[in-house]
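Researcher: Go.
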Amino acid sequence: KPISYAWMMDVKATKSFDVRILLDNQMNIIAINERPLVWVVATVIADRNVTKNADKLNDIRLRVDTTEEISPGSNLYKFVFPNGLPSRLLTVDKDGILNPCQEIKQNLKFVRQKTKFIHYKRESITAKITLGIEYSDKLFQFGRKFCELTLLNNK
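Model: Structure:
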């Protein structure tokens, strides 16, 4: 079952492992997991029109993945947080600029903020539409909008 969150941070722990940190609106930690292991990815519909603006390119992909929670006593947790968990992993200043903590800033791959969440349920299927902004530049100042659709079987 997907976890509801407001912010997502992906931290590169090693060449083989990434850590995904989920935060609520008050920047409190909800979960710390391994980056999902992707079993299947398939592009169903792709926009083949080449334009100068990359944001205009859209496609639809099917993705199946699994993830494992990282416990505070695990080696991976200790590797990412050798001095213990910082009091605040992420703050946002009055101008909307993201400020990751120094302990993870160097290894931070991206930060995602959910801006809107729409939920539909019909018979045995639940559809969740998530809109937000992903920050992946070195300073985490320039965001790119995203929209994701998640389908869940309620049975």
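Model: The longest strand covers residues 108-122.
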